[in-house]
């Protein structure tokens, strides 16, 4: 609703401004046209006055008539004069042409002023509208972030607290104690990843996140990251690797681990339980391509345009079932850009999403 109201208000105000300046322009043109008509009428009246003056003086010679006109009515001229005292007085050609040119010039002046003012006001309103919409979107995303971060913090803390209380109150066998400690460790790692993502996003926004790029065996690095990620979670069977051996890329090891970890988190979060996740790495002459494919619900065309924004998460935080803070894809996008690489979101077949990262050879 908050996104609809600014748009409606902007359209109404824009239409009002358009109508107001159209009316202003037409009113000035009409007023100027009326003034021009009065000036024309005034010239006609001067022709009559000149004739009355000549008749009152009973002028019989052409030279006298010309002298009188030039003296008292410089904007008029004698068209013809004969021996029978027949003559005709008309406005000078330059008087009429200058008058018509003046009317056209003033008309275009008002039209130009109206258009310029309209464009400037419309541009200013558009800037205000975009800023207002951006603030509404940002406030909504921040509210969603606060709700999600609260949930993300409370859940593992409550879980670890419960595990510790269980260990203190009960005498458990070694196997159950080990299970509880492993689960506690997983929750602590989850908190650690959350804090690292928050710090990393802050560093990215403040332009303080620098990479240490050097040539690394990306094939070996990805296999290590996948094992490190899958083993504690017991999902080795879900991750299907198709990684070519001995592929070297200039990259930052820590950043690549953050990138792949966030991609895997995202894939697991939005995929059916136990559905496969494919990680593929290949290299051609000029580029190295990393692809991660899931079989989830996919990403809509509209969300693909905004999914890399900070805090963005599809749906409403109060009704959304999946966990997360909306920072993962924001971090992924920036890590990719810092590697001078590109990232694309494609539709998987028959369903799901493909994140495709292209590392260009330097």
Question: Would you mind describing this structure in some detail?
Answer:
There is one protein chain. The chain is an alpha+beta fold and 362 residues long. It folds into 3 domains: 4-136, no CATH class; 141-205, Helix Hairpins; 214-360, Heat Shock Protein 90 (2-Layer Sandwich), CATH 3.30.565.10. The protein contains 8 helices and 9 strands. It has a 5-stranded mixed beta sheet, covered by helices on one side. A hairpin with a 5-residue loop joins strand 8 (342-347) and strand 9 (353-360). It is rod-shaped.
Question: Tags for this entry?
Answer:
Heat Shock Protein 90, 362 residues, two-stranded antiparallel ribbon, 9 strands, 3 domains, alpha+beta, five-stranded mixed sheet, 8 helices
Fold blueprint:
Blueprint: H1 4-57, H2 62-72, E1 76-81, E2 87-91, H3 93-169, H4 174-205, E3 214-217, H5 218-233, E4 239-243, E5 248-251, H6 253-269, E6 277-283, E7 287-293, H7 301-304, H8 328-338, E8 342-347, E9 353-360
Parallel strand pairs: 4-6
Antiparallel strand pairs: 1-2, 3-5, 6-7, 7-9, 8-9
The number of distinct β-strands equals 9
Radius of gyration: 40 Å
Total helical segments: 8
How many angstroms does the end-to-end distance come to? 48 Å
Whole-number mean pLDDT? 82
Oligomer: single chain
């Amino acid at each position: 609703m908050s996104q609809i109201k600014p748009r409606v208000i902007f359209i109404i105000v824009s239409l009002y401004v358009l109508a107001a300046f159209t009316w202003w322009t037409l009113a000035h043109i009409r007023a100027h046209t009326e003034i021009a008509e009065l000036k024309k009428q005034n010239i006609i009246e001067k022709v009559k006055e000149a004739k009355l003056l000549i008749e009152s003086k009973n002028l019989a010679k052409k030279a006298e008539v010309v002298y009188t006109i030039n003296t008292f009515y410089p904007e008029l001229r004698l068209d013809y004069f004969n021996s029978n005292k027949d003559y005709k007085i008309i406005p000078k050609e330059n008087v009429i042409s200058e008058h018509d040119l003046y009317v056209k010039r003033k008309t275009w002046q008002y039209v130009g002023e109206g258009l310029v003012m309209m464009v400037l006001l419309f541009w200013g309103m558009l800037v205000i509208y975009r800023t207002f919409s951006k603030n509404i979107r940002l406030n909504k995303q921040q509210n969603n972030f606060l709700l999600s971060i609260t949930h993300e913090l409370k859940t593992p803390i409550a879980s670890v607290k419960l595990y510790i209380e269980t260990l203190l109150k009960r005498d458990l066998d070694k196997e159950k104690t080990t299970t509880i400690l492993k689960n506690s460790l997983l929750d602590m790692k989850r908190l650690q990843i959350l804090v690292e993502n928050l710090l990393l996003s802050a560093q990215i926004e403040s332009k303080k996140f620098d990479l240490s790029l050097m040539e690394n065996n990306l094939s070996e690095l990805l296999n290590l990251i996948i094992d490190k990620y899958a083993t504690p979670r017991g999902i080795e069977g879900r991750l299907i690797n198709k990684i070519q051996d001995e592929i070297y890329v200039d990259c930052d090891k820590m950043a690549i681990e953050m990138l792949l970890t966030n991609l895997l988190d995202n894939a697991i979060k939005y995929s059916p339980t136990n559905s496969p996740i494919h990680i593929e790495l290949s290299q051609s002459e000029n580029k190295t391509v990393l692809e991660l494919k899931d079989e989830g619900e996919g990403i809509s065309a509209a969300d693909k345009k905004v999914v890399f924004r900070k805090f963005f998460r599809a749906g409403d935080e109060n009704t959304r079932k999946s966990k997360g803070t909306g920072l993962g894809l924001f971090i992924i996008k920036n890590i990719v850009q810092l590697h001078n690489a590109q990232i694309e979101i494609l539709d998987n077949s028959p369903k799901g999403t493909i994140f495709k990262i292209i590392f260009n050879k330097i």
